[in-house]
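Worked problem 6 (solution included).
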Amino acid sequence: MTNKKLKLIFAGTPEFSVPTLSRLHQEGYEISLVLTQPDRKSGRGMNLKASPIKQKAMELGVPIFQPNKLKNPDVHHRLKEEKADILIVAAYGLIIPADILNIFDKGSYNVHASLLPNWRGAAPIHRAIESGDKEIGVTIMCVIPKLDAGDIVRSKKIDLAKHANTGDMTNLIAKIGAELMVEVINDINENKELKHIKQNEKMVTYADKITKIEARVVWKDVSSEIIVRKVNAFNPFPGVFCNFNGKILKIWKAQSSNKIKKCEPGEIYVNPEKNNLFIGTKDGSIEVKEIQLEGKRKMTAKEFIVANKINNGELFL
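Solution. The predicted structure is:
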């Protein structure tokens, strides 16, 4: 590892944050503290689980700090005593107050998974896919107390593939964001001047947090295109769902189809070979490629048809 003179504090929580922490560590920067949210209960046993960033910090041997809130004199003191030069943020999950940002002489920088000022907020990748955006991207910005509103210092566009889902794009953008952040910190380390671009407030859109209820499909109300976008946007979480025979049914992969001409919304059509599954929509039909019935594993269309003895005319509700 190359010796670097800058000292960093890193703030992050989910898997998205891990590539940035890993790359800065690989570059040889001193990461004196990792700030992450408290352990949360999860799984069937509701046991406490460490965040992905906490797990990575433990692996790297970096000290960890997990305050419940940041507006606390003790938290301010703890961060100030590190005497770090820069704060790096990647999906930490809390707004960072001005008194903490003012601690860092060389600034605070955030990895955000959108082309700002588009899609400020909690779920930028989900909302970009759901809205049918042709491009997606990542931005390195200065952190200010207002949500995702700081100056842009680096960004990169990515073409959004037609069938790309949130899981795939999150992994890709996390890696690209990590490389951009390393470029920014290297420039600061070498005393290069960063180009700051103000965000156009007239162009701002917001990416609201995803709720489970909006992932439910009401077949008679929604077009094929919108359903397919939602399937891709809500994979891997929370998953587009409907009901079938009194159980929750999740659709993980689907595409619009013009093969079926007469199919009522929610009505199932299976081809004679029993390897293609179609569902009627408001304006046509979709073809389901991967599906999961409550309590079962994910299945291909053919596996689902055979396992459940699906007949034409049955309904997804």
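Discussion: The mean pLDDT is 94.
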